[in-house]
Write a structure and sequence with these properties.
Radius of gyration: 23 Å
Bound molecules: carboxymethyl coenzyme *A
Number of domains: 2
Oligomer: single chain
Number of strands: 6
Order of helices and strands: EEEHEEEHHHHHHHHHHHHHHHHHHH
CATH superfamily of the largest domain: Citrate Synthase, domain 1
Number of helices: 20
Shape: globular
CATH class of the largest domain: Mainly Alpha
Helix content: 40-55%
Structural class: mainly alpha
Length: 426
């Protein structure tokens, strides 16, 4: 078996090397502190694996992403969000009956408890829908407390189904609330994505025509956001979950983490950046700002911790952008600016050297905008999509015998011991 040897103060220690199914290697340091008295220091967990996981595989150098072994390109082309979420949560594609039952359950659990509707009135009108979403998801644990006391697998699956279904209802209701429009309830006869579009855009005075091409585009968007191994929000879900708290509360932490602009919040920032650029002639000014170390501005939708090649999700979305904009027959000046920006950045030494390519957030907003989703809802769309990934990781964490509470260590650099000084002597 392969071993790694570490030498500290002239003494050598052997550490196990672990190999994943795709050949990736990890040095197992779980005995390091016990053996040597040392810990590791790894800002941003750039080199730290926290678990063994069977949910998704990424090769950032080659631009590969697979869910449960299936390439993202195949799922984006052939699957639906409901089927993909089943695959992620249960590990296998569903059979015909399983898929029907699952779709039915998602419909059955799509309503919100009527008392929850009043919560929307408590938020100031300008509240960000991500804030509303994380609060409401956390509140689900009060409405369905049985999961606290009984974590049998059927209960977890029920909670997972509720989360996937109700997140979409909460999202649509928060949009309606922001417009001052009445809530539109979910309908039993509609599929997952069609139902969401109907809850968002139909009203008592205007019927919304559900367009199958838009439903298809939405399915694709949700599928490509559904899972991305140990990213910041998934790590938040797992960190909270490792303390033993329920699934709803763990997921609510994931929504909060996703909101940040370096993570899911980037999709809103990309559109705002493209709007600020305004016309292709201004692109070089923004590129120069992104390269300037004295300017905090970054090219939003560019760069990734894991992908050092074109993000495969951005590649799929770029193609979808052309199709969907042609279908809607809308001119989209932002797409032209985005394409030019990408072209210029990918020829620039700064971006080449650092291997900075468009990521999933670069083109997603253009499609969301084209199908009528308001900009402040973009990150909520990401959260609806990421729900099955978060749930799959929470389940995996709770079924892994090796799981421990996630509790890193630190290198203390504060004062040495000193005495307390009474306030009149300071
Ligand atoms: N624009 C300009 N420079 C960049 C950018 C960017 N978008 N991204 C990274 N860099 C530079 C960075 O300044 C650093 O340069 P140097 O080596 O000279 O100090 C180098 O590239 C490495 O960057 P890093 O910040 O150390 O890399 P990281 O892995 O810690 O960060 C990232 C990854 C995604 C946070 C970062 O690339 C970024 O801020 N991108 C813009 C925000 C964004 O699009 N986020 C969405 C990520 S994908 C979807 C998701 O996860 O939600």
């Amino acid at each position: 078996m392969e071993k790694a040897v570490i030498e500290i103060a002239g003494k050598k220690y052997e550490l196990k090397v672990i190999t994943g199914t795709e050949g990736e290697k990890a040095i197992d340091i779980s005995e390091l502190r016990k053996l040597t008295g040392h810990i590791t220091l790894d800002y941003g967990f750039m080199n730290t694996g926290v678990c063994r996981s069977a949910i998704s595989f990424i090769d950032g150098e080659k631009g590969i992403l697979r869910y449960r072994g299936i390439p993202i390109e195949e799922l984006a082309e052939k699957s639906t969000f409901v089927e993909t979420s089943y695959l992620l949560i249960h590990g296998e594609l569903p059979g015909k009956n399983e898929l029907e039952n699952y779709s039915e359950l998602l419909n059955y659990h799509s309503m919100l408890h009527e008392d929850m509707k009043h919560f929307f009135d408590g938020f100031p009108a300008a509240s960000h829908p991500m804030n509303i979403l994380s609060t409401m998801l956390n509140a689900l644990s009060s409405f369905y407390p049985e999961i606290e006391t009984n974590t049998k697998i059927e209960n977890i699956d029920l909670a997972a189904t509720r989360l996937i279904s109700k997140t979409r209802t909460i999202a649509a209701f928060s949009y309606k609330k922001s417009k001052g429009h009445p809530f539109v309830y979910p309908r039993k006869d509609l599929t997952y994505c069609a139902n969401f579009l109907n809850m968002m855009f139909s009203s008592p005075v205007a019927t919304y025509e559900i367009d199958p091409d838009i439903v298809k585009a939405l399915n694709l968007l949700l599928i490509i956001h559904a899972e991305h191994e140990q990213n910041c929000s998934t790590t938040a879900v797992k960190t909270i979950g490792s303390s033993g708290v329920n699934l709803y509360t763990s997921i609510s932490a994931g929504v909060s983490a996703l909101w940040g602009t370096l993570h899911g919040g980037a999709n809103q920032e990309v559109i705002e950046m493209l709007e600020a650029i305004g016309k292709p002639e201004n692109i070089s000014k923004f590129i120069s700002r992104a390269k300037d170390k004295n300017d905090s501005f970054r090219l939003m939708g560019f760069g990734h911790r894991v992908y050092k090649n074109y993000d495969p999700r951005a590649r799929i979305l770029k193609k979808t952008c052309d199709k969907i904009l042609a279908k809607i027959k809308t001119s989209q000046p932002l797409l032209e600016i985005a394409q030019k920006l990408e072209e210029i950045a990918l020829r620039d030494e700064y971006f080449i050297e650092r291997k900075l390519y468009p990521n999933v957030d670069f083109y997603s907003g253009i499609i969301y905008k084209a199908i009528g989703i308001p900009v402040e809802m973009f990150t909520v769309m990401f959260a609806i999509g990421r729900m099955p990934g978060w749930i799959a990781h929470w389940k995996e964490l709770n079924s892994d015998q090796e799981t421990k509470i996630l509790r890193p260590r630190q290198v203390y650099i504060g004062s040495k011991i000193r005495n307390y000084i009474p306030i009149d002597k300071r």
